[in-house]
Structure formats: structure tokens, C-alpha cells
Amino acid sequence: MSLDLTNTLQQVSDMAQSISARENERLKRIETAIIASKKFDLRSYESVRGHLAELGQSTTVINDPPTKSFITPNIPENLMVAAVDGSHIDVNRHLAAECFLINIGTCLIKYGDDSYAELQSIPTLYASDENMTIRGADNRFQRIQGSVLGIKRHIEELKSLSNLIKKLPKDIPCSLFLDGTLFPIGISIFPQFVRDQFFDEINEIMNLLFQESSRRKMSVSAYISYPGHNDIVQALRLLICDEISGSGICKGCIEGVKDRDLFYELLEPGQRSPIFVKNTTPGHTNISSDIAFFYLYAGNEIVRIEMPYWSVEHNDIIDLAHGSSFDQSIRGPGYPTVLIEAHEQAIVTAVDRESFIELVELALNSNGITTPTSQKNISKRIRNI
Amino acid sequence: MNSDEKFEQLKQNVNAEDGWSGVIVGGSLSDGLEVRLSSESSIEGVKVGRLVTIEGKTHRFFGQVSDVILESSDRNLSIYSEEISEGIMAKVATGTAAYGKIKVQPKLSIKTSDTSSSPQSAKTVPPHFSKVAVSAHSDIELIFGKEAPGKFWIGSPLDMESKLCLDINEFTKRSNGVFGKSGTGKTFLTRLLLAGILQSGKAVNLVFDMHSEYGWQGYSETENHQVKGLKQLFPSKVAIFSLDEEHSKRRGLTPDYVVRIGYKEIEPEDVEILRESLSLSPQAADAAHSLYRHYGKNWLLEFLNTSGTESFNSLASQINVNQGALSTLHRRLSGFSRYEFMDTTSVHDSVNQILRYLDRGINVVLEFGKYGRDTDAYILVANLLTRRIYERYAEHKERALSGIGDEPTPLVITIEEAHKYLTPELANQTIFGTIAREMRKYNVTILIVDQRPSQIDEEVMSQLGTKLVCLLDNNKDVDSVLSGVSGQRKLRSVLSSLDSRQQALVFGHALPMPVEIRVRDYGTPESYKSLGFTDPTNKKDLSQINQDKSDLFG
Amino acid sequence: MNSKKQNRKEKLSKEIIGEVIRASSTEFETQCYDLYGFPPLGSLVLSDDENPIFGIVSHSVTESLDPSRTPRPRGPGLADVKSIYQESPQLKNLLNSRFTSITVGYIQSQTVVRKLSPVPPKILSITRISTESELIEFSSNFDFVARLLNSSFASSDDVLASFLSIAARLRPEPDQYLIDTGKEIASLLPGQMRRVNLILRNASI
To answer: Residues B222, B501: contact at Cβ < 8 Å?
Structure first.
């Protein structure tokens, strides 16, 4: 017996009614947010930010009014575009061997004269205890699997990206892309020794990238489609919300509005927002966590482009990121071609997963290791009645 | 030369413009072999009658093309013939989907390992896919022999340059025939045969030369000029006798002997043979015998001198013959008195003279001059002389058999217009019928030169050893010539496809297999030379003249 | 393909076009190094390892490497295919050209044998286009005709025609060559003169 759709249908339709009821409310809030952004006062914001910084709270750095927009810049005719994406096969507890696999796909496209492309995927198997564990100084350890593996993979993607740059000719501008956020999310929930380990690795990579960026014209863009962020909306709230400032025009009136809703109204296709900076530690830059970002009307949606924090000082790099992101999303279409291809290289399909498991079992068997596969696993693979 | 090399050589002949080759794909010994032509072959180069060589596994076969057929492997070829009849496709289809087939009648075979013996008649057929090609010169020589003393070059197989030779020894062992409707070259062929016999020295000729064309200057109808006679080519070996001295002299010839026939020499048999040409009833012919009994040797003159109704009546009653028959006989025989060669002298020396020459190996041509136009005279004289000569030969031979003297030189008597006196009714009674039937019992054979073989007695025809047949268009004549020959149907098609000049089908005793030939040229200086003639006006050849003289005068 | 790689390839040999990715006794499939790098239909190719095997190009395919990803039409605005490839260089990596060759012979001690090879080519053997002299030598004997006609391949007649057309052009008298081969074809296809005609007509264009 599979899913009882008749039963589900009623619930779904109830949900739709409820969403529809909330939609009008949401539109009103977006309207309010737009008005707030138009009235945005940089000096007031800076003073609020200053207070909060003293309290140790980090806020988004906004140097231009959010309503300011930038038209699509021209991109160089000869341009290298590269992207990295990854996927993984998590530890399978039904499998005799404990191991996981990270598959990194890369795509490199040269536009202009003698255009060409290079696609590659590099799988890496992690099976040794050493590779699969993060150890702290006091004998504490963390197995890499589940959400930890997700962060590990993200870091591996960044590593591949920094390696990819070495392959690129120095004399041609290049635009690098990552899928999703620039830095992994959710590191903060882990114990200190795990966080330290991750930040150390990220630090190293970002330092490499930083060095490279001084040698060539290069942008690094983390491309976030349908972003759920509300950094700018939060900034607006600091100025208008009673609950926060006590002197605002409304009470909780723009809560729930996303940045993308706002910029959808503020930007025309191809345009980007001003550059914002997210500073994790007030008064102190942190190479492994601080980012610069902007919103871009690319294709049919607002996307968020995150860049290493140092990019903010270089308009040509921002233009390169802006222009190539927009160009790529048109070629896609809708989503950057180079990311699509990197993703295609990285992707691990269900069939691939099955084959991987079989391969592992075969290898174990041929080495004389019996593989007591769990009954659940067997029943998943042998589908009969 | 092994058979493959041999075949390569054959194929080289084939690669000529109209060459062809093929392989056996079926057939039988009785119906002939089916040969598929190779795709390069030109079907127009294949001619019925052509001699072919088939390389079997252990035997080499020789045969003759008897039919040429257009075949197609595609039943629907005619439906789309239009679209494939042009350009490349036509060339592709030719020899593949549309190909030529020929029928070959196997005649002879010889062991490939032993080509020194002579080919035997084929008793089996070569296997499938045996290669077939036009016979090479060496094959022709293998089958018919090389030109050599006793092997007389008579012509070439059709479309070939090879010399095809006739074994004169075998030829003269039996009586033979040269047939063909008038104007097809019988005379030329006969003249060649006579020259061949003469050259070989195997036999001597006695020619009853009806139209004076063998001995001294014949006339070529095709070339429209005079051709040399035997006497001109072989002056020391030929003597010309004449019945009509004046005629001979007009032609610039002094005959060696002028033949006279005495009335006394004519016997009732001589009249009998004329029965048909004189339109005599059997009774009238019988009357001659009665007259002979009544008058004795001088019966004819006596009878011709009889005149007046009374005398006739009394003679009729005396010899007991119907008076009407007698007077008819008288009327018809009185024509003899117009013959100037007849005289009342009791004994003439003609027969002895002829024999004297023949004994010395000198060939005798008897020219009839103006009497050549008179069949009666021809029959009378030829029959009369032959009978005497034959008797003498018989005596001679009998003596030789009992150990006295040598055998007489074989004699070949050439006669023309045989259909007038070798008819079924008369054949038994004439000396020629006897000779034909006897083969060479007394060393005498005849050579019949005739245009109506169908009217010649079947038995005589069947006794002819070798027949040389030029174009015949009367079915009865064709039937009679081919009667008793195996593979008649095929030969008939060959025969009917002969050119009207200088071509002949030769078959019989003297040849291992029937063959269609282009008769050797006669009448050109080269042809005379090839026959051994040397121009006496050429000083260098004086020795030859002396040789001739010594031959002539002993 | 970057230019450095291209140079290297040219150095190796101009005619090497790909590698064998599937092989059986009767045919082998080659994946081309270059997109659309397959030789014309009917070309004579060699899988050139230690046992060189002759094949005649009988079927060429260009398609997405990933069967679940089909090419997306770029719309009528971009009629110029060349510029599409220029603008989307990754297409060359996502598509691949392959061709199947009917096995028609092999080389044994430097002699051309016009029979099926005792063993098929090894996977990843280099495939190259035959030289003119190899083609002339190979096509000078008509045994290959039967191989092509008897192959289970659906369009083998057209393949044969294309091959003949290529082979004929190398000869001083192309028509004569077609006639000679035509006779071989006709003898192999008795009663099918229309088919023979069609083959030759296609070959002589």
C-alpha cells in the first residue's frame, strides 16, 4: 500500500487556502518594506549599527541605499568561467564497510576566441578512521557523517575551486562560481574543536584565493538561487520597527519579508543591488566568515551572489561577478550554465549509489570479507512480490 | 605445358576484340554442353561451328559451338530493362544478370597427361566449371595433324588462322564427295583436293573434267579472272587428255593425248547408264543387250547403220525386241554419230594411254571441251573409260595379290554431275556405283563432285568416306549429305549457316571430327607458291624445271 | 579542446580520429575525439593496434553523453550553428560522436585479408582513417562486397555505394571500377538487378 492520496488531498487543499489567506498580508508587508527602503537613511542606520556593535551584535554593512541599482556591466569578450559543485554518498550503516564518498564536479568554459570547455569529476573515497574523524586535543572526536559531512563537502568544493584556479591562464579574466552559500552554514552548532578544524581549513583556502586574486583579475561568486535571506529586511527593521527602536512607524510590520521579495520590486532584469557586507565579528574582519554580497535580477528571479569580503574594494571584480552571473544565467537558461555542468559532473544518481554499494561489497568479498548486509537493504534491492 | 598454362594461352587468344571464354555449367554428351560465357566475353565473337577446347580434369575435350543463347538470371529483367540498359548498369548487367550461353557439342577427348597420341571420340563430358575457350593452333594441330607430307592443308577452321589438314592417306582409302549448290566453290575445293592428292603421291588422279577447269586454267567466278590449272602448277605430274582438241588448242594448250572412242568400244552397259539422260524405257535399254548379242562388238555401228522400216521390223523380230523400243533406241543413239571423238576405227588406245600415264604416277585430266555441255557424252565417255580402267586395275591388283608385280598406284577418279547416273535406279548398274561400294578393293576410288546429292543413290552416299560440303539450301540435299552422320541436327545448323563462298563443312573418315572451314585460298600467286608452284620464268628455278622434266620422262 | 592538446594530437597522426569503445566480431564502434569527428559514411578505417582491423563506416551517431539530458533548441534567433557552438563550448563536452564500422578484413603479416578478423579489436584501440594506398589495395579485390551485402546492417547497400564512390574516385577510370565491382555485386545478387542498379547509381553520384 502506497501513499493514500485521497486522504492527502484534503490536507493539501486546506494548506493552500491558508497560504492564500496569508498572501494578501504578505503583499502588504512587502509594500511596507519597499517604502522603508526608500526612506532608508544611511546615517541613522550607521548610528543604530554602532549601538548594536557595542553590544557585540553584528549587522550588515550598508554603504549605499538599498534602492540604488546598478545596470549590467559589459563582460570581457575573452573570459574564463569555472564552477565547482559536489555531492556525496553518506555513510551507510547497512553496509559492512564504513565509508563515505565525495564527488566533486568541475566545469571550465573559455568564451571568446578559441572557445572550449573542460568537464571533470573527481570522486574521493574516505574510509580510514583518520579520514573519517575529526579529533580534538582532549581525546574528543567527531565522526564525519550526516550534517558534518555536508560541511566537509562544502569545504572540499572550496578546495577544488582554489585548485582549479591554478589551471587557468593568468592573462584572461576569470569568474569562478560556487553553488549555494560561500561558506558552509551550521558550523556553529558543533563543538569548538570541530569548528576550529573547519575554520582552519576554510582560512587556508581563503588565504590562497586572496593571494590568487592579487595576481589576476578574478571573481569568486557563490550563486544562491531563490535565496531565503533577510539581511536587508532586518536592517530596515532596525530603523522602522517599534520593537527594536521604539520610535518606528509600525510594529513587526515587515516581519517574514525576504530580501528577494524586496529586490524583486527594486530591480529590473540584469540589475544588481549595492554591495552589502556581512561582518561576523563587529570591528574585526574575518577572512573565513565575512562576505560581501549583492542581489541580482537574473533570469526570472532574484538571486544572491556572495563573494569573499575583499571583493568589496574592487569595482572591476564586482562588475565581473555581476556581469558573468547575469550572462551565465541567461545561457543556462535561468541558471548559470557553468554551474549546471559542474553539477552534472558532480551528481551521484540513485543508480550510481547502488553501483557504488555493489562495488564496495564486491571488493570486500574478493578480499575475503563477508558482508552481512541488513535485511532492509536486501529488501530495497530485490523488489518483488 | 600444363593445362593451366595452356588455358592461359587460350585466354590470350580470347582477349582479342571479339574473344570469349566460358565455363561448363551443365549439359550432356548427347545434347551438348551448356557453357556460360565469362562476363568479359563478347557474345558476338562466338560463332556456331567454332572449334573449342575444354580443359577437363584429366582430359582435354574438343568440341564445336552448336548454339548461341542469350540468358538472364533475373526473371524480371525485361520489366526494368529500360532503366538498366544505359550507362554503367548496362555494362554491369552484361555478363552477369544478362549473359551469354553457348552450346558446345563435345567431339573428341585426349588425356591431358598424354597429348602425343591422337584424340579419341569423346565418351564422357568434362565436369562442371571446366574452362572453355576457342581452340588454339596447337589444338587444331593435335586434332587434325600438322601440315606434312600426306597431311594436306585444306583450309582453316572458321575465324582461325590455323592450318587444318586432311589426312590424304585416309582420304584416298574411300570414295569421297564434294557437294554444294552451284557457285559455292566446289570446283575450287576439288582442285585443291586434287592438288593435295597429287602432292602427296599417295594416289593418282583421273579427272573427268566436264567443264575443262581442272587441268588448264579454270575461271574464278568470285575473282573474275583465270586461275591456274593443275597442269600449270605441276607440269611434270599432270597430263591433259582432250576429247575436243580444237577447244583445248583455243585455250593455248596442246593436249598430251587426244582421246578417241571407237564405236566398237561401246557396250550395252554404256547405253544402260544413259537410260535416264536419253529417256529410254527399260525395254529400249535392254534392246542394246539384244543387239550386242546379235551383232557382236560392232553392234552400235551396225545398228546405227540400219535404216528403213523394213529393216527395223526384221531386226526387231530377229532379236525379239519390241519394234517401237528399238526405233526409240535408234533415234536416241543416232545422236552419238555427232560426236567427233567417235570413229569407226576398231581399237583405240585411249585406255592404255591413260593407264600408261597413271602407272608412272602422272595424273590425267580429261577435258571434255565442247562435250562438257553434253551430259550424254560425258556419262558415256566417263563410264566407258572407267569401266575399262577399273577392269585393268582389277586384273593388276589380282596379279599383285597372287604375287606377280606390284600393286597398282591407288587411283582417284573424279566425276561430276553424278546425280545423273548414280541415281537409285542406275547406281547398281554403273561402274561408279560398284567402285563406291567396294571401297578400295582394287585401289580405285571415286571423288564425286555434285550439287544435287539427294538424287544420288543413298547407298552410294553412305559409302562415301569423307564429305566436303559447301552451302546447300535444299533440305533434301542437306538430309542426304548428313544421313548416317551423328549429331545431324547440330551439323545441319552449321551447314545452313555457311557462307556461300569458300566455306565448307568437312566430315567423315579422314577427319577426327566434323569441322567448318574456310577453304584455303586458290588463285593468288601466294597460294600457288604455297602449293609448291615455282614460276618457270624465274631462272633460279631451272633446277625445278629439270626435275619436272626428269619426272616426266623417266 | 585546448590548443596545446590539439598540437599534440596532430603530431601523433592526422588520421587518428578516436578509439574503439565497443567491438564484436562483425563490427566495432569508435568514439571520436572530436565532436563530429567521424569520417564520411563508407570510409575505410582501421582499428590500428597490433592486429589492425579494417572497417567500413556504416553508421554515425552524435548524441548527448548523458541519455537523460537532451539538447535544448536555442530558438530560431540563432540560425548560425557555428556561433552556437562558439557560444556554448561545453556542447563539445556534452555531446559525442561515434561511428560503427562493419568489419571487412584485417592485416596479417602485412597482407590484407578480406575476412572477418579472428578476434575483434581491443577496446580503446586507436581508430584511424586508412591511407589512400591502403584503400586502393583493399578495394582492389571484391571480396569485401559480399561482407557488406551480407551484413545485418539495415542500410548496408547505401554503405556499399558510399564506399564504392570513395574507392572509385581514387582510380584513373572510376566508371570502369564501378563496372567491375558492379559485376561482382550482380553475381552476388542474382535476380535483383534493380537493387544492383540502385547501389551503382548511388555510387556513381
So the answer is: yes
Name the CATH code of domain B171-258+349-541 (choices 3.40.50.2300, 3.30.70.360, 3.40.605.10, 3.40.50.300). 3.40.50.300
Q: Is the peptide bond before C40 cis (omega within 30 degrees of 0)?
A: no
What percentage of chain A reaches a pLDDT higher than 70? Answer: 93
- The amino acid sitting at B438 is E
Per-residue pLDDT reduced to its tens digit, B346-394: 566 788 888 888 888 888 998 888 888 888 888 888 888 888 888 888 8
Q: Which residues of A touch C83 (CB under 8 A)?
A: none
Considering the domain architecture, whether residues A240 and A133 belong to the same structural domain is answered as yes
CB contact under 8 A, C192 and B93: no
Are C1 and A116 inside 8 Å of each other by CB?
A: yes
Q: What is the pLDDT of residue B18?
A: 60
Q: What are phi and psi of B488, to 5 degrees?
A: -50, -45
* C1 contact A CB<8A: yes
State ipTM.
Answer: 0.73
Inter-chain Cβ pairs, chain A and chain C, closer than 8 A: 38
Q: Is C86 on the interface with A (CB under 8 A)?
A: yes
A193 and A101 both lie in a single domain: yes
Of B73, B84, B95, the CB nearest to C197: B84
The CA distance from C75 to the nearest CA of chain A, in Å, is: 12
User: B78 at the C interface (CB within 8 A)?
Assistant: no
Domain map (residue ranges) of chain C: 3-203
Residue type, B150: G
**CA–CA separation, C87 and A331 (whole Å):** 9
Nearest CB to C193; choose among B39, B74, B95: B74
- What's the whole-number average pLDDT of chain B? 81
Choose among C3, C69, C89: nearest Cβ to A117: C89
Number of domains in chain A: 2
Q: Which of B81-95, B393-407, C110-124 has the lowest mean pLDDT?
A: B81-95
**CB–CB contact C185 B84 (8 Å):** no
Question: Chain C partners of A115 at a C-beta cutoff of 8 Å?
Answer: 85-87, 89
Q: What are phi and psi of B427, to 5 degrees?
A: -55, -40
Residue-wise pLDDT for A52-72, tens only, equals 888 888 889 999 999 999 999
| Cβ-proximal residues to C6 (8 Å cutoff; 6+ apart), any chain | none
- Beta strands in B168-314, from DSSP E residues, in sequence order: 176-179, 204-209, 218-220, 225-227, 238-242, 257-258, 261-262
Confidence category of residue A381, pLDDT binned at 50, 70, 90: low
Name the residue range of residue A361's domain.
Answer: 354-381
Q: Where are the beta strands (DSSP E) in A38-171?
A: 60-62, 79-89, 100-111, 116-126, 133-135, 141-143
